[in-house]
Amino acid sequence: MASFVISKRFSGDYKFEFTSRKGKTIFTSNSYELRMDCEADAEYIRSVFDSCSYVKFKTTKGKFFFRVVVDGVVKAVSRKYTTELMVQKGIDEIVKYGARAEILDFSNNNFVFED
Asked: Long-range contacts for 41-50 (Cβ within 8 Å, ≥24 apart)?
């Protein structure tokens, strides 16, 4: 099942990533100062996936990506893909599994391993 994974950036801000059923990141959100705002936006995007716009772009190096736009505001940017077909597959994964995706919060874990 696809999921939203909330985590911290090195700057201390929060972000969420939408990951596929296989665990690959499809898109990453903007930064949020508060975890509550990050979680609320992930919940909101999950509820409006059917009305989101997915705007496709091509980099100068020939890679493809898309932006998730809700009500005229860019909410997230996808990872880079090698072909336009792979971009469409990423968007299809969002449309198919996004509304049922669970939200996982890993922002409080320090992931410290003992020697």
From this structure: 41/16, 41/75, 42/4, 42/6, 42/16, 42/103, 43/103, 44/70, 45/70, 45/75, 45/76, 46/4, 46/98, 46/99, 46/101, 46/103, 47/99, 49/94, 49/95, 49/98, 49/99, 50/95, 50/99
